[in-house]
Amino acid sequence: MNTSLKFVIVVLSMTIISCQKETKKTVKVYESLEYNIYMGDKLAGYQKSFQGKDGVYHYVYEFNDRGRGPHINEKVILNDNDVIINHEIYGHNYLKDTVSEIFEVKEGTAKWKSSSEQGEAKFDNNSFFSAINGSFGITDLLIKKLLSSENKEVNLLPSGSIKITNIDNHKINDSTELRLVEFTGQSFTPSYTWIDKNDRFFGYVSPWFTCIQKGYDSIAKQLQPIQKQKEEEYLKNLSPSLFETPSKKILIKNVGVFNSKTGKIEPNRFIVVNGNKIEQVSTTVITESDDTMVIDGTNKTLLPGLFDMHTHISETDGVMQLAAGVTSVRDLGNSSDLPELKENFDVNKLVGPRILVMSGFIDKAGPYAGPTGSIINTLEEGIQAISDYHDKGYTQIKLYSSIPPEWVKPLADKAHELGMRVSGHIPAFMIAEQAIKSGYDEIQHVNMLALNFLSDTIDTRQPLRFSMVAEHNHKLDFESKKFKDFIRLLKEKNIVIDPTVSIFDGMFTVKAGEADPSFAKILDRLPLSVQRGYYSGGLPIPDGKKDQYKASYDKLLGIVKQLYDNGVTIVPGTDSMAGFGLHAEMENYVKAGIPTSEVLKIATLNSAKIAGVNDNLGSIEEGKLADLILVDGNPVNDISDIRKVELTIKNGNIYNPEKLYEAIGVKHFK
């Protein structure tokens, strides 16, 4: 799910709309172009760019991502200065909610209004308006203006700016002349797009999502490694400045230490780190010396590094994870270069956490297949995919929604034969109870548990897996025999649950214009262009049903508490924004009624056990690896103090969160 959310952010950050003085535009030749959109290797949609006889520019944009996806129509009028004075957007967004967005310039004033925001400003002939719901189409107009602007930079409305910081020329197949354009100012790290020899938008490429001019589909995969190398160059050049490998021992003095076995804070401890190991944990004063780097932990808490057990991690996520105190992650489905990324994080070529578990992603080909991993047509292909993942060092298999129910057991049997765990979504026309009896060891997403009490006729390949839960989960009876029997089954079979409950807060409880609750506390710390995407709302909420949808979300929190109360193992996954998403997930567990000390244990030692690394990680003990975080406050007393990370140590290397955040345009909590 976070694949889709990440992609929406990418699209939003790439869509920049310009505006200048209000005069009539002279019609120029604008070649009609069509684009194909791919989710992974699957054709999923299109974009059309053309100009009417009246000079109005038109863009139509649509794609299908497992039943989700936008359909956007845009109309744009330019003035003689090649900037936009009128822009209309209508259709529906990624989660199928109605979109209506208008920008116009009248009498020297620029005004904009959408379902999530509105505003106005004096039209200063210099600022561009950045739309919330636009397509890639406007990139043509933006690039033209940027190329002709001083320093290739323009200011934005409501605020901020965007700048072309680099252009690389490439010739593909000895005939196609393209340029890779690097933008800064719209996201945490630079964004990239391809343009053709006429300065027209040619494409955006990634392993997850590609939009490319029709007729050039075959070269998309040639562009991906070129773009990836450029992205990695930026991060690799940045990485050496973001961490320190101490030449001395580290002494953390007078600090409260969280004991992840007892759940208590042990006061006034002295911790010595030597290389990448915890050398000493002492209750008595350790004398400072010239061969120690001293860190004062007075009024602070030292915890083991946190675990995020549900990521689809990218190169750019690494900085945010470490800044938030997340030193270990589990990846539950990614592109084929995940082993390379793991190695880059391990040796600090890129700044990022340990990728402790790589999970191979498998789905059946079809209209709702997932966008990455092994997309299979036969059971035999699935069994072979499991063997291939095992040979590449993967230790877990994630099955997805289009897998036929009758394939689950033979696939699980093969994975277990190789010593791999099996987890995933519950396939369509199956319920969680059946998946467990067929071999699942773990279930992703708490809505998959809620669906167990609805029907096995629900096509969970589609957004029904969300909307049906929002409609009906508020009626779930925790005292019913069916619910209690199911909880007993989870316990008896040692099933692990990865709830990712926070993503349903933003999906079920807010409308456009309201901040996503999971990130409301930190939105003012993010780049403004990123902030705006978190006001776009969630599922379309029918009139009169907002309280009902909210009650259904609260009942999801109730399921999490029932799991905890009955001894079912929970691991904290996010499937959302790196770092900050884990903080929100932990806060929501406390909101559900789980004690703060237990939540901290879940995010440290308990997760280390599930990942199979508790001998070396998850607790602060002599001889264990030095993955530690220093927090300003006491998260046992207030779980939100977990957001106040002052220092992160991973494998003995020191990372300053303030410096990490500064590198990606995020404000530190102080």
Can you describe this structure?
The structure is a single chain. Helix content is 27%, strand content 29%. The protein is built from 17 helices and 32 strands. A 16-stranded mixed β-sheet has the order 1-10-11-12-13-14-15-16-2-3-4-5-6-7-8-9, with helices on both faces. Strands 17, 18, 19, 20, 21, 30, 31 and 32 form an eight-stranded mixed β-sheet that branches. Helix 4 (317-323) runs antiparallel to helix 17 and helix 10 packs across helix 14 (546-565).
Keywords:
32 strands, disordered N terminus, 27% helix, alpha+beta, eight-stranded mixed sheet, 670 residues, 16-stranded mixed sheet
| Low-confidence segments | 1-27
N-to-C span: 31 Å
Kindly report the average pLDDT value.
Answer: 93
Cα-atom radius of gyration: 25 Å
Question: What form results from the Cα inertia axes?
Answer: globular
Sequence of strands across the biggest β-sheet? 1-10-11-12-13-14-15-16-2-3-4-5-6-7-8-9
Helix content: 25-40%
Query: What profile does the largest beta sheet have?
Result: 16 strands, mixed
Q: Determine the structural class based on helices, strands and strand pairing.
A: alpha+beta
Q: What is the helix tally?
A: 17
Strand content: 25-35%
How many strand units?
Answer: 32
Topology of helices and strands:
Layout: H1 2-14, E1 17-18, E2 33-39, E3 42-51, E4 57-63, E5 71-78, E6 84-92, E7 98-106, E8 109-113, E9 118-122, E10 127-129, H2 139-148, E11 153-157, E12 161-172, E13 176-184, E14 191-196, E15 201-204, E16 209-213, H3 220-238, E17 249-259, E18 264-274, E19 277-282, E20 292-296, E21 301-304, E22 306-311, H4 317-323, E23 326-331, H5 338-346, E24 354-364, E25 374-376, H6 379-391, E26 396-399, H7 405-417, E27 421-424, H8 432-437, E28 442-444, H9 447-450, H10 464-472, H11 481-492, E29 496-498, H12 502-508, H13 528-531, H14 546-565, H15 580-592, H16 596-611, E30 628-631, E31 645-650, E32 653-655, H17 657-663
Parallel strand pairs: 10-11, 17-20, 17-21, 22-23, 23-24, 24-25, 24-26, 26-27, 28-29
Antiparallel strand pairs: 1-10, 2-3, 2-16, 3-4, 4-5, 5-6, 6-7, 7-8, 8-9, 11-12, 12-13, 13-14, 14-15, 15-16, 17-18, 18-19, 21-30, 30-31, 31-32
Helix pairs in contact: 4-17, 6-7, 10-14, 14-15
